[in-house]
Amino acid sequence: MPDSGGPLGASGFDLKALLDARAHEMMDLHEQYINPAVTGVLKTIGFDATYVRGEGAYLFDDRGNRYIDCLGGYAVFACGRNHPVIRAAITQAMDMDLPSLPGVGLFRTAGLLAESLVKIAPGELGKVMFASAGGEAVDIALKMARIATGRTRIVHCARSYHGLTIGSLSVTGNPEFRDGFGPLLADVVEIPFNDLPAIEQALAGNNVAAFIVEPIQGKGVNIPHEAYLKSVADLCTKHGTIFIVDEIQTGMGRTGRWWASEHDGAGTTWQPDIMVIGKAMGGGYCPLSAVLCRDWIHTKVFPGMAQSAKIQNTFSMYDTGMVAALATLHVMRQERIVENARDVGAHLLAGLSAMVGKHEMVKSVRGRGLMIGVEFGRPSSLALKLGWDALHKLDANLFCQAILMPLMSEHKILAQVAGYKLDNIKLIPPLVLSKADADVVISAMNKAVASCHRFPGPAWEVGARLTAAAAKRFVPRQSAAKI
What we know:
- This protein is α/β, with parallel strands linked by helices.
- It folds into two domains: about 50-80 and about 335-475, Aspartate Aminotransferase, domain 1; about 85-335, 3-Layer(aba) Sandwich (Aspartate Aminotransferase, domain 2), CATH 3.40.640.
- It has helices at about 15-20, 25-35, 35-45, 70-75, 85-95, 110-120, 135-150, 165-170, 175-180, 195-205, 230-240, 295-300, 320-335, 335-355, 380-395, 400-410, 435-450, 460-475, 475-480, and strands spanning about 50-55, 60, 65-70, 125-130, 155, 190, 210-215, 240-245, 275, 290-295, 360-370, 370-375, 415, 415, 425.
- It is globular and about 70 Å long.
- The protein starts with 14 loop residues before the first helix and ends with a helix.
């Protein structure tokens, strides 16, 4: 379609004018050109607010409402949204006209970032490869493990989440993401999470290239037993298997330490062979991930000049991303972001944990730092049990929406379900969340959960409303024509 003038006319590109002129069309544009199913979901559950600004741990909509963001772009905003120091660093890089992506030649900023990451990495991870997203980093790690060991088998855990590329999807233990795509990578084995006998059995044949695991599973916020990771590391060493730790979501201070695996002694009593990181690296401005590995693995993958480009990607070391990450690390140190995640996270976890025993359907609250899961379970009282069963019979995904929807509409708190068909709400806010914000979340969660303990009551009506809306929206075209 030819340019019709206006904000994109001869005077130049004016982003503000463009957004202002077409602000009322945003939902329609998404529905028409991007994903009508997603816009349907947003409208149905009341998550269709039009956000116009983000700052720190907050989002602001076009009606002047402020929301506490407990989703954090899926754990991207460690330093908060639109941090001025990170923005200024990116602006400075642009003003300097840096020679980004020379292709063949030295990438000026990449070495600085690689050095900074190696210095804070656990153990002896001496080499770094950069990528654009977490799934791509996992793909690189799997390639490295297969080349370095000469084996093909990969072991991962049920309910794991490692990404949605074909390679990373092959080691993602959530069928809802995998169904319909046909055969994925061959020679991949799934075992239960947090089960040492299972991993010992899987490695017994000395034919496994790698075992990949999240130090805390993102789907469900499942925390392993004490010393699980160390025991796994010992088994991997014994059987010649590369141990890949996926810190894409849990790393960069999320759990109150630089890396979640440090809670289990990583870097002191054991070391990962490969660690993949991402999400928060780019400060919320730039997509960026990295693969850190031991030197011997890197030498196996790149043994000489002929193999120097065996694994590569176009945007792996672009200057804007490198600078954003360097600035993010600087801000995290200067503003003690990791320590804030530890302290505010402990405060939030304690406040939410008080719901156990107070509210019948709160089964457990678990987490580390600012990665917290609130799990619900079937109540014992007859009336609530009837409501619980009826709601789950309608749809196993509905219960948490009965809490998330009022959190959004009444308390202006954005949060998410911890996974498909899980009665579990996950909180992963920006790591700049304050204790005052945490207190608001604790109070709001108590009120929303309390409303679910009245049956019949407003929360239970959510199930009927959502089911009716979904049925109306997704009626097949042939049937709809007859109505």
